[in-house]
Structure formats: structure tokens, C-alpha cells
Amino acid sequence: MLMGMSTVNGDNGIELSYQMVTVDTGMTLQVGFSGTGPNNVLFLHGFPEGSAGWADVIPYFDSSRFTLIVPDQRGFNVSSRPLGVWSYNTSDLAADLASLIRIVVPTQRAYVVSHDWGGPISWILASKYPQLVRGLVVMDGPHPNVFEHLLRNDPEQKVRSQYVLFFNQPSSTDYFSKDNFKALIGTFGEPWMQGRERFYLQSYSQPRCVDSMLNWYRANIYGSSSFDDKMKYNFPPNLVISPSVPVTVLWGGNDSAFNTQANLDGIAGYVRGSLNITVYDGVGHWIAHNQPARVANDIITFINLHP
Asked: What is the secondary structure of 184-240 as a DSSP string?
């Protein structure tokens, strides 16, 4: 269901016409739209961003060729922020987006572009709802089954993911909320954030927003204070991508959150169709901000190759 509140908002650095969309899971998502072209592209942000995460990439898309669909996902900004950790399991997050595609895309098929936590959700979306996905572009967002395997078995990934153990503690909500969200803003540590703090602060100030964003971790990697045999993972098994869904992966070679090579090496075992992997040498986690022209060009090239 599309609801009113259609506005144009430039506070986050991008011009998007926003609508509130109630999806079949009962969640209401704030969704930004741009363009009127025949190629529908769904952009999925990660933690701790929101629709503003795509501010640097969107201007490169020709509005006559593309319709961009840019939601604030469950738990972020003014979208629904349900109570309880278990409201944020990955399967439900993917179901939100499957319903969104059915509601707002006339052909009920879209290209899906994702980053960070948007990555695992997009892998699940493409695996469970392949009929809705024309193609998948994932940026620095691990395949859930590969990532779980590495968290169980790879010492390097365990070290790089120590921050998750802190995020899982209830005290992390207060830590990230105090001093006007200073520590949360500081997680970016990038020049591109300058001048955009206003949008992020508005988002984080929504009731329960910080807790809801952290619940993405708490609901899906939980049960222990270390990555030992007691740790549990709420990722669906066997997330194979159909031959009907081509995949391209764009990855910052200097991403400190991941054992890059191990994560990338594992992807091929789950993709049955076209797969291309590009590593951006010398680039860290925030590639859509640090290399927006290249990222946009790679996405558009992918779409052109897979009409």
C-alpha cells in the first residue's frame, strides 16, 4: 500500500521523492524514488546508514533510463522500528523487500544493489525470491553462508568481527546514543560525512532507532560472548543463487571488516549463473562514497550486459 507523504528532501544530500509504503509483513517503510525509466533498481543500505548511503551514486543515473527505489529499511530512520530483537531476523528483512518490489515495481522484477548489511539481505532476497530479481550487485556485503562458515572457522574473520560482540551487548545502545550520537557518527571516519551529519542525526534521533539498527546484529549473530561453538546464526541455509539471476560483486580491497579473499573465494559455490567479482584496490569499506563514479559505472555496465 502506497501512502501519502510524497516529498522531495535534499537534507541527506540527494533529491528523492519519498513515500511511506506499507508492505505485506506489516512494516511501513520510507522509500525514496528517483527517475521514471524502465530499469527499476532497488538500493539496499547497510549499518548505520539509511537511504542517504546512496547520496554519491544516485546522480550518475539517467532519470529517463532508470527508476531508483531507495528505502530506509526496517529499523532505520522513520521506517517501522518494531520492538524486540527477534523482529529483525534476516528472513523477515528480506520479506519486507520482496513485498516492496511487488508493490512498487510494475513488472515485479528489479535489479538489486546492496552494501554492507544490505548485502546479506540481498543474497537472501535473490535466493528465496529469484522471480523478483533481474540482477544482483553486492558491495562489501558477505554471502551469509560464507560469512557464517568463516565466523565458525577462520581466525582472521573472527578477529575482524570482534566489534559484533560489542554491538550485541545492551550497553552498546547507550554508548552509541550518548553525546549526540558522537561514536555512531564516528564509525564512518570519512571526509564525505562532512555536511551530512544533519540527516544522520535526524535519523538516529527517532525513538528506538539506535537499538533497532543494532538489533540487526543481535537477532542474527547471537548466543555467546565469543565466536565459539555456542554462537548461533540466524541465516537461512543453502542460499544458492539461480542461473536466472546474474551477480556482480564490488569489494573494497582494504575493507577492514572482512577477510576479503576468504569471503570472495566462497561466493562461487553459491552462484549458479553469471558471476563477476571486482576488487577496488586501495579502497576501504565505503566504496559507494569513495568511488561513486566508478561504482555507478560498474552498476550501469552490469545492467546493460543483463537487460
From this structure: HHHTT--GGGTT-HHHHHHHHTSTTHHHHHHHHHHTTEES-SSSSTT-EE---S--P
Per-residue pLDDT tens digits for 146-171: 999 999 999 999 999 999 999 999 99
pTM for the model stands at 0.95
Angle at 70 between CA 261 and CA 58, to 5 degrees: 75
- Tell me the C-alpha distance between 234 and 218, whole Å: 10
241: DSSP letter: B
In the chain, how long is the greatest CA-to-CA distance? 52
Cβ 37 vs Cβ 66: under 8 Å: yes
CA distances in angstroms from 245 to 73, 123, 241, 303, listed in the order given:
23, 11, 7, 12
Q: Model confidence at 192, in pLDDT bands (50, 70, 90)?
A: confident
Distance from the Cα of residue 36 to its chain's centroid:
23
Cell numbers 544522520: residue: 200
Q: What are the residue boundaries of the structural domains of the chain, listed by start?
A: 2-305
**Could you tell me the CATH superfamily of domain 2-305?**
Alpha/Beta hydrolase fold, catalytic domain (3.40.50.1820)
**β-strands 2-9, 66-72 pairing:** unpaired
Copy the grid coordinates of residue 259. Answer: 577477510
Residue 19: DSSP 8-state? E
CA distance 87 to 231: 19
In the structure, what pLDDT confidence band is assigned to residue 23 with cuts at 50, 70 and 90?
very high
